[in-house]
C-alpha cells in the first residue's frame, strides 16, 4: 500500500484542469488503495433480470475481481454471494445454472438460495452451522437491472437516485427486455483512462468516423464551430417540440454525487439528421420498447454511479460496464437489450454495430494513451474546453481520494 | 521475506482443526521462507534407478526449482549435482544422456562423474582446480528409488525410516522395476492444498466416481455410514486371513516425524470387491512384481517424507511426487512402474487409468479450491471427522513452521 | 531501488578476474539503477540514414524501453522525440511513415518536425503553447549512422570519438549504404551476459563451428596453441604488407572511455585463409563498398560506446545493437548494410549467413548461462587468459557502478 503522506502529496500536487500524474495510471499500490477504499463504495451494474428467469436460476459473474454468484431466491428476491464455500474455501459454482440448492463440487456441502448451510450432518460438534452460511454481496434490483456492491458500511443508498431515474428507465421498458448480445473488450489501460475517454467527444471526429456520421451532437461535442453549434441548437429545439406527446419525454437530471451519495445522470437529445435509431442508416433495427408508440429519434444516456452506463434508443438499449482489473487492465463490457417480444430470429449485428465499432476504436486509442503515459517523458497535459466533463471526473476522483486518504490518516477529510 | 513477528502472530492465531489463514496459501514471502527453511530439510523422490541404466548415465531433473544432474558414477554409486558449471555458471547438461565426463556446452570445461574438474589446463594460476568441482546435491539410493535433497546441515538421516519400509518395498519388487509411463499435472495451487486434498477421501464420492467404484475403502473414508463400515471391516478381516501366506504381508507402520526425523507411513488394505489390482475391472494389467506368487488383491500405500508417495498393487506401482513451484503453483508428477520383465509391448493405458483419471479430477478440484481461497471473503473453515489426516498434516506444518520461525528469532522453538 | 550501502558492499566484495555476483545478473532493482544512472549516459546506435530517405520521414524505435520517434527535419537535420503527445500523453506515432507534421491519432494535435506544437487553437487560455512541444531525445548523426541517447546533463560528447573513427567509417562507405536485412534475437539474459559473451572467443570452437571455420583469428582467440599462434602471426604480417595500397588501411584505435568519455575501438585484421569476405566460402556476396577498389580480405571491427558494434567486410557491414530490456531480457538486433547501388535483387541470405548462424548459437549459450546463474549454487567463477576483454569489461562496469553509487551517496567517487 502506498504510504499515506506520499499519496497525499501526490494528490495535492495535482493541478486542476490537467491530466493526472503518472502513478495514478500505473501504480499497483494506488490501485490497491482504490480497490479497498473506493471501489468498495461503488454499485456496479452486474446483470439483467432476464438472466435469472426462474427461482433457483444462478449466474457466476466478476465484481471487482471477486467471483460472485447471483441467485434468484424468489420473484423479486435476488441474492448475491461470494463464490466461496465456507467449508474449505472452494469455488461453489463453476457456471450459470438452475438448482434448488447451491452445491459445492468439492465435498458436496449445500446451501439454500438464501445463503444458509443446508447440509449440516458433517459439521463438527461445537460449531454452529448458522456461522457457516455464504458470505453475502449487496444487491439492488431496480427496473430489471441488478446492481451489486461488495459489503461495506459506507455503501451509499441507491434508492434516491433510482427514484429520479425510474421514469426514464420505465419509458424505455428496460424491465421487460431480453438480452440480444454481450461482448467484452479487455483493455490494457487504467480504468480512469477508460472513463476519461468516455466523458469527452473531442476525439470523435478523429477516431470515430462511424459514430460521428451517426450522431448529430458531435457538431458541438467534437468541435468548436459557431455555425454548426447554431444548426444543432435549432435541431434540438425543433425536436423538443415534436416529442411533447404521450410517448416522448424530455429529461435531464444529474447529481454529481459524493463518496456517500450515488452519482448519476440522465440526459436526452435527438440522434439527429432524421435518424430513428442508432443504426447505420438510422432505420429501425428491432421492436419499439417500453412506452414508445412511435419512433421519436431520441437517445437517452444514463450514468449509474461512476462505472455503469446505458445508451437507450427507441428500439434497443446498450448497457456498459467499466470493470477495473488491475492498475493497467480494465474490461469494457457491453450488453445489448431488446424488447422481450422482439423477433427471436432478429439479426443482432445492426443493433450492435455503432457501439461495437466505436468501442473497438476506443480500446485502441485508450491503449495508445496508456502506452504513452508509461514513458518517463509523460507529464500531465491540459484539458481543453471540449474535455470539460473529463476534467470534472478527474477533479471528483481527486477530491474523493483526498477524503479517503485523510480519513485514513485521521485528518479531517 | 515475511517479517518474523507478523509470521509468528499469524501462526499463533491459527485455530487447530480449521483450514489455514489465507496468506499460507497465497503469499510468495511465506513460500520463500518455506523454500529456504523447510524444503531444504525434505528428501524428495526424484527418479528410479532404471533411468540410469549404466555408468555415465545422467539425467536432468528439477528439485525445488533447482535444475540438478543425477549421474551414475558406479554400480551403486549415484551422484547428484546442481546443473551449474563452476566456470561461468552455464547450465552443464541440457538433456538426459550417457558420457564418461560431464562436459559444459559453453567452453567445454569437463567434470568427472564424481564431480571433480577434469579439464584444468585453462584454470588461471593461483586458483586451485580442486575448488572448482561441481556443487553436490544429497542423494539416498534405496531399493532402486533415488531420493535427493538440497545440501543442508539440518537434513534428517533417511536410513532409519527405510529400515522399516525396506521389507514392504522388497515385497513389491520395486528395485527391479522399469518405468512404464510418467505424466506431470501442473496445478495452479499452493502445495499444501495439494497435500490437504491427498490426505482425505471425503471428496471421493463427489469428485472421483471411478476411484470410488474401484476402492472399497471409500465406504469408510468417504462417508459416515455404520452399516457400510461394518461390511468393510468384515471384508478386511476376511482378506487379512487370506494373505498370511508366503507372498502376502500385513504391514502398518507410521512415524509422524519432525523437522529432524523423516516422516513416513506404510499401510496395506484390500482393494476390495474381489479386485486383483487397481484397474478398471479389477483384472491384472501386467506381470506380478516382487515376491508376489499370486494376486492377493491388496494395495500398499507408502509415504516417504512429506512430499513423496507410492501406491503399490500386485502388478504395478504408482509413484507420486508433489513438487512445489511457487506460492500458487505445484506440479504433481506420477510415474508408473512395472516389473523389468513385463512385456515390452504392454499397453500402459489400463495401468495408468485409475490414478490418471483421479489426478486429472484432483487437479481441477484443487485449482477450484485455490481460486476460492484467493477471495477476500475466504475465512478458515472447519475440518470434519472425515478429514482427520488433513487436519493432522496442517497441524504438523504449523508446528514445524513455528519452530523454524522461533529458531530464526532466537526464541526457544 | 537497491539500498546504497548494500549495493556498495556488493560492488566492493566483487573479486577482480571473476564473474559477477548473482544479483548483478538477476536483480530488477540493480537493473533499475543501471537504467536510471548508467544507461542514461550511453549513446545507442539506433538507425541508418537510409531509413529516413526524405524530409518528413519518421521511424518509431525503442531506446532503453522508451518508444521514440526519429524524424528527418532537413537534409542533415535528424531529430528524435519521446513518442508521447503533450496533450493527454497518447502515443504519437504508431508506425514508420512520412508526413509534413507529426499528428496524434487521439485528438489530432499536430507537431512540426522540429518539435513545436503546430495546432494551437484548442490550447486553453493562460497556457503557453511553446511549453507543449515534444520532449526531445539526443541525436548524433555521423557518416549515416544515427545514434540516440536519453536526455541527460551527463551525456558524453561523441564527437572526439567519431573524429578518430571517421576515416574507417568512410573507407567502408557506410554513409552511402542501404539496409539489406534486419533481424532481432530476443534473449532471456542480462545484458552484461550478452556483452561478456561478445568480448571473448574462448567459446567459439565449442559453440560456433561455422564462425570458427571462417575466421582465422580463432586460432589465437579461441585456443592457446603456440604453433597456431605463430602461423596466424605470419598470416597477419603477410596481409599487412598487401594492404598498404590506396584502398586498404591498417587501423587500430581504442579508448577505454569512462562515464564521461565515449568508449570505443576499431581494429582490423584479415579474415584469413584466402577469404575475400565473411561468407560461407569466402567469395564476394555484394558490390564493393566505400573506398575499396578491390577485395583485401580484411574485417574491421568497430565498437561505439558500450552497446553498439559493427563488423565491416569489403562488401557488406553488420551493425549490432545490444538493447537491455529488463534484468533478465536483452535484445540483440543485427542490421546488414550493402552499398546503395548494390543489385536490388541481391540474395541477402549469404550476406546474413555468418552472423545469423553465430547469433542464433549465441542466444542459446547466453540463455543457458543465464539459467545456470539463477541457481542458488551459482558462485562467481574465474575468467581464463582467453577471456581478458570480458574481464576488462566487467572491471569497467564495476568501476563505473561504484562511481555512480558513491556519487549518489555523496561519497567521493
UniProtKB/TrEMBL annotation, chains A, B, C:
Cofactor(s) the protein needs: Fe cation
Domain Rieske: residue ranges: 43-148
GO MF entries: 2 iron, 2 sulfur cluster binding; dioxygenase activity; iron ion binding
Keywords in alphabetical order: 2Fe-2S, Dioxygenase, Iron, Iron-sulfur, Metal-binding, NAD, Oxidoreductase
Signal peptide start-end: none
Pfam families with a match to the protein in the record: Rieske (PF00355), Ring_hydroxyl_A (PF00848)
InterPro entries listed in its UniProt record: ARHD_Rieske_2Fe_2S, Rieske_2Fe-2S, Rieske_2Fe-2S_sf, Ring_hydroxy_dOase_asu_C_dom, Rng_hydr_dOase-A
Designated name of the protein: Aromatic ring-hydroxylating dioxygenase subunit alpha
